[in-house]
User: Which sequence fits this backbone?
DNA sequence: TATATTTTGTGATTTGTTTCACATCAATTT
DNA sequence: AAATTGATGTGAAACAAATCACAAAATATA
């Protein structure tokens, strides 16, 4: 049965990503060990929160000794399946799609856009290093590269239709840039990125002059946001 | 004092945006009245949640009669300061910046990118309808157009430096696309958009075959996500 | 006008998340 | 070897968010 799947990254997972980025930086600087309060300082949370988050993901340090950075990163890579490569497809090679197809950080993080797709034959001329195919080659590519996750950058009006097609061909997760709530089967993960909403809420909060910061900020805080 | 400002849109605010999009669609279809359970159905939440959210933002309906769509949208416009225009600047006219500068939905929602900026003189040739200036004209433009919110699409390495400059010139809110935690004064709102993290978490959840859906989905749910 | 019906609005309750407080362990010092 | 120190890990407590349950209000019906 198809239904609206609202999917929001859990805050603890968001924080884990922050810790990881921080650990990568520290390792680059030659640091080998880290304490929960170091990570806490760098990421604007409390040290208990760091330890609780780690414990949620089954990560253990050594008492008194803190955490070994290499060890920690290795465990995280396993948790996030970063030891394997992940093949992605990108649908819609318009303004946004083109930018995304050129974004090098995806590759650095083992996520490869193996092909992009567009209905517009004009766009199907190679626009970046990655080939641009017409939609009728979707199944072939998805099967060949065992693609499970897609990036959807088509206009609002086509988003549902394209999502349906993706799912028919075996896609299980979609990062959706179109400002619509997609109706999908229960086992499909949808992450909606809505830049207008993002901007509007910044404007909203700027107008209220309210914010959340690392050093837990006052009564206004919990009235209006969560972290 | 500068510090890490972690800012996450409150879920109730996210839902309000969903309701609004839905109301706009309904109005377009000629519908005039709406009940909490209609909105709930369309957005994948419960009707109590809709009413609680409305009450948080001080929105009242009429018992038995539901809500008047025009009235509701008007109230929301006021809450989100959508009756006025909001001028924005966009810094970094690379791949992503160019795409964003061409995004028409911002204007449709009363958010105007009045100018874009880049240090690269090559990019300073007009790349879209909006002018591309060098950074030394930032202050002039921000002052002239009373800009309070900026979109930051520069490389990771320059993000903090550019953010500092923006804030010196009076910017109070930033939507940041660079994958770094910016250190800013307490009264500045930062919203981080991290596409890699977004993709990685979809991959993570796809691997776990876990999802949240509108019809509250069992034990697996609360173990891993929140909505 | 009285009664039934429908939908809102909100206290009370449940569920989830963060912070607190401290036992536990490992390393260092005496 | 014992005492001290400094960090982790985790139940308990505090806090926040979502759901439940129902009174109150508005409308429809008899
Ligand atoms: N441009 C931005 O910065 C931006 C920002 C946020 C969100 N978005 C959203 O991302 C989506 C794409 O935006 P854009 O600015 O790149 O639009 P665009 O019009 O430039 O590109 C859309 C592309 O999708 C293709 N397309 C249309 N229907 C298709 C179909 N059925 N199958 C395959 N391809 C199809 C078109 O040919 C076009 O190339 C939109 O939903 C938009 O709202 C864009
Ligand atoms: N391209 C994408 O799809 C994408 C996706 C997610 C996140 N991002 C992030 O967004 C940012 C921009 O990405 P991009 O792909 O557009 O990069 P890019 O290199 O194409 O563009 C960056 C632009 O910023 C300009 N710039 C550099 N330093 C500057 C400074 N000090 N002041 C003003 N302008 C400066 C450069 O001249 C360039 O035009 C990066 O932080 C990237 O990680 C990009």
Assistant:
């Amino acid at each position: 049965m198809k239904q609206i799947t609202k999917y929001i990254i859990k805050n603890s997972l968001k924080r884990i990503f922050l810790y990881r980025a921080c650990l990568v930086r520290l390792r680059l600087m030659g640091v080998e060990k880290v304490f929960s309060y170091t990570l806490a300082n760098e990421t604007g949370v409390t040290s208990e929160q760091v330890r609780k988050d780690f414990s949620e993901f089954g990560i253990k340090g050594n008492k008194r000794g803190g955490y070994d950075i290499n060890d920690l990163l290795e465990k995280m890579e396993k948790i996030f399946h970063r030891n394997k490569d992940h093949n992605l497809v990108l649908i819609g090679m318009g303004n946004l799609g083109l930018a995304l197809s050129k974004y090098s950080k995806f590759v650095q993080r083992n996520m490869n856009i193996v092909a992009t797709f567009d209905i517009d034959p004009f766009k199907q001329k190679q626009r970046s290093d990655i080939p641009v195919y017409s939609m009728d080659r979707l199944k072939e590519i998805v099967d060949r590269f065992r693609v499970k996750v897609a990036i959807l950058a088509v206009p609002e009006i086509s988003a549902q239709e394209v999502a349906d097609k993706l799912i028919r061909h075996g896609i299980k997760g979609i990062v959706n840039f179109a400002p619509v709530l997609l109706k999908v089967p229960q086992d499909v993960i949808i992450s909606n990125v809505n830049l207008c909403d993002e901007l509007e809420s910044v404007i909203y909060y700027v107008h209220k002059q309210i914010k959340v910061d690392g050093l837990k900020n006052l009564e206004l805080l919990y009235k209006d946001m969560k972290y």
Residues 196-227 of chain A form one domain. The CA atoms of residues 176 and 215 of chain A lie 33 Å apart. Strands of chain A lie at 2-4, 33-34, 67-68, 86-91, 111-117, 132-133, 149-152, 173-176, 183-185, 189-192.
